[in-house]
Design brief:
Catalyzes the transfer of acetyl from acetyl-CoA to desacetylmycothiol (Cys-GlcN-Ins) to form mycothiol. With 329 residues, the chain is an alpha+beta fold. The chain has helices spanning 30-47, 54-58, 107-119, 134-140, 179-189, 201-208, 263-278, 293-301; strands at 11-14, 19-25, 68-74, 82-88, 93-98, 124-127, 143-154, 168-172, 218-223, 229-238, 246-254, 284-289, 305-315. A hairpin with a 7-residue loop joins strand 10 (229-238) and strand 11 (246-254). The structure holds acetyl coenzyme *A and ligand LOVRLL3Z.
């Protein structure tokens, strides 16, 4: 829906007496963003998995005019606390979460129906951890699994020394100097990825400003002959409330012309060494798409094991209701 925006008037859509849904434009008022963050924290504590991804949480703040936020209340908005939330991006990707105290009362169904109204056949809604009920709710509304994202964990174990391909050296990322070079190799490495390959300077800036960002954990592989950045391993440390600190292989990418030379393995090992030895972290995690056979083979070899699964649901054969979105063009 690029370039589209919500009507001037709040687009309030009612799905029944008990549930009030309100589609609100970006930017969310700070108090509303805080309520959504608390709702997500409460659900994570109850379910053992975060219902909203980093991208959605980052987009709660700031101007993202192509995003749609949906708030669910029991009764009139403001008359009660937030019962649920859904986010819909311009590419049809979406997430939704219902407060643990409002489960099995139709809020999830109402939120998903509204996402289908707005997203149509492009809707791709996440179910992180594929929790009980996700498949049932999705199936009831004509959705099926369209994508699998595996969450892998590597228990603490010695890290073999990285063996670098000839003519390649490694250094760490310098914010403000390496941005363009990293964006270029990231988009080349992830040219076929639904999200990663389209990251731009704004996406990078969002993350450079995060408390977890640490350039010492962001490794760049450089071709000595050309000086070109040809690969990277960006690590991340999670120190979230209620979780033991752990490291993440956040993103590993190798320029297509350098793939199959041992560079991905070397970069991955260097990042794991950093997380374990420099940051003193025991376990290391990562996300990898189910279709990514190369990455899966690499990580399995390095001792990663499947810990959980996220899935994305999509309308069966694009048969979603063909209702036109409730948004002005
Ligand atoms: C946590 C994440 O970031 S998941 C996303 C990972 N990144 C991407 O998918 C971006 C696009 N792909 C790439 O950048 C690369 O293909 C990577 C990072 C997956 C692998 O990097 P490469 O430099 O090609 O890997 P490298 O040459 O070091 O191979 C290491 C091992 O990976 C596996 N592997 C690499 N490529 C392949 C392939 N095409 N098919 C099967 N296995 C493969 C093998 O086990 C290989 O070991 P081997 O050569 O001894 O058999
Ligand atoms: N290995 C990476 C790059 S290809 C990957 O698969 N990322 C996924 C993953 O991102 C994680 C997610 O945003 C978590 O909320 C965050 O805490 C992690 O740090 C991220 O790695 O899942 C996303 C969907 O939730 C997906 O869009 C990314 O491509």
């Amino acid at each position: 829906m690029p370039g589209q925006c919500l009507d001037d008037e709040l687009d309030r859509t009612f799905y029944g007496i008990e549930v009030t849904l309100e589609a609100v434009p970006s930017p969310l008022p700070p108090a509303t963003a805080a309520a959504v963050t608390e709702l997500a924290r409460s659900a994570a504590h109850s379910d053992g998995v975060n219902p909203l991804s980093e991208h959605t949480l980052l987009h709660l703040d700031g101007e993202h005019p192509d995003d749609v936020h949906v708030l669910a209340y029991a009764g009139d908005p403001g008359a009660s606390d937030l019962a649920g939330y859904a986010a819909l991006g311009p590419d049809g990707s979406a997430e939704l979460v219902v407060s643990p105290q409002y489960r099995r009362q139709g809020f999830g169904t109402s939120l998903l129906r509204m996402l289908l109204d707005h997203g149509g056949s492009r809707l791709r809604v996440w179910a992180h951890g594929r929790l009980p009920g996700a498949d049932e709710l999705a199936g009831r509304l004509g959705l099926e699994v369209a994508r699998e994202l595996y969450f892998l964990r590597r228990p603490s174990a010695p890290v073999p020394a990285a063996v670098w391909p000839t003519g390649i050296s490694v250094r760490t990322f310098v914010p403000g100097e390496d941005d363009a070079a990293w964006l270029a190799v990231n988009s080349a490495a992830f040219a076929h990825h639904p999200e990663q390959g389209s990251w731009d300077q704004s996406d990078l800036n969002d993350r450079l400003q995060q408390p977890w960002f640490d350039p010492a954990g962001f490794f760049l592989a450089v071709d000595d002959a050309s000086g070109e950045v040809v690969g990277f391993h960006w690590t991340k440390v999670h120190e979230d409330e209620g979780e033991s600190p752990h490291g993440e292989v956040y993103v590993v990418g190798v320029a297509p012309a350098y793939q199959g030379t041992g560079l991905g393995k070397a970069l991955t090992l260097e990042g794991i060494r950093h997380l374990q030895e420099d940051r003193g972290l025991d376990s290391v995690v990562l996300y990898v798409d189910g279709t990514n056979t190369a990455a899966h083979a690499l990580y399995t070899k390095l001792g990663f094991e499947t810990a959980s699964l996220d899935v994305q649901f999509a309308p069966v054969n694009g048969l979603a209701p063909d209702s036109s979105p409730h948004i002005a063009s």
